[in-house]
Amino acid sequence: EMDRLRLLKKVKPDERFKNIPFLMITSETDKAKENEAFHSGADQYITKPFKTCVLEKTILHLLVKPPVFKEKKVLVVDDSSTMRSILINNLIQAGFAEKNILQAENGDDALALMSSDTIDLVLTDWYMPKMTGIEFMCKVKSQRGFKQIPFLMVTGETDKEKVVEAIRQGACEYIVKPFKAVDLQEKIKHVFAIAES
Question: What distance, in Å, lies between the first and last C-alpha atoms of the chain?
Fold first, then answer.
């Protein structure tokens, strides 16, 4: 009822689906057909038969975008060393350079780091000892020179009222654990878009 090209042409213009990668897998070897697929919105194209390693590499390329945040410095604040490691791995997958990712286990340590380095983005947990992520964020934004630093709240908190509170207090975005690297990347893109607007 609907071939692959008609599906692409129908789905890709929709704002809800435009960022979903489309991998065309087909026995069609005609270059004109391949070009038509790309023109219709396909992100990658594989002809049958294919090797498993080719499929894996292509999918990886589609899901992990090229580095777009390489020069940005990001601070990860979380009292869990395991969660910090997960976040750092996700940030590297999202395109941040490892050398530009700083980490702190609480708000006090984070403030000390921020006073000696230029930070482009802060990812902070909600619940931490000494001060919560919200308290830390408010403290940062009350200081001259730090007010414009964007915050992304990373937490297991799912209460909608908490989400509203985080945004009201100054968070640009909010992501709930667990999450995928691609979801984090989209949130970060949105944070930078808000910060630069």
Answer: 44
In this prediction the pTM is: 0.66
Say how far apart CA 72 and CA 13 lie, in whole Å. 31
Neighbouring CB atoms inside 10 A of 103's CB total 18
* Distance of alpha carbon 72 from alpha carbon 97, whole angstroms: 8
Q: How confident is the model at residue 147 (pLDDT cuts 50, 70, 90)?
A: confident
- Is it the case that residue 180 has pLDDT exceeding 80? no
Q: Are the C-beta atoms of 123 and 74 separated by less than 8 Å?
A: yes
Does residue 151 register a pLDDT over 60?
A: yes
Question: What is the percentage of the chain residues whose pLDDT exceeds 70?
Answer: 94
Measure the CA–CA gap between 31 and 36, rounded to whole angstroms.
Answer: 8
Host H or E run for residue 35: helix 31-40
Give the tokens for residue 82.
């395991």
CB 84 within 8 Å of CB 106: no
Half-sphere CA count of 143, side-chain side, radius 13 A: 12
Q: DSSP class of residue 66?
A: P
Question: What's the pLDDT score for residue 109?
Answer: 94
Task: Check: CB of residue 155 under 8 Å from CB of residue 125.
Answer: yes
Residues 196, 54: Cα–Cα separation, whole Å: 38
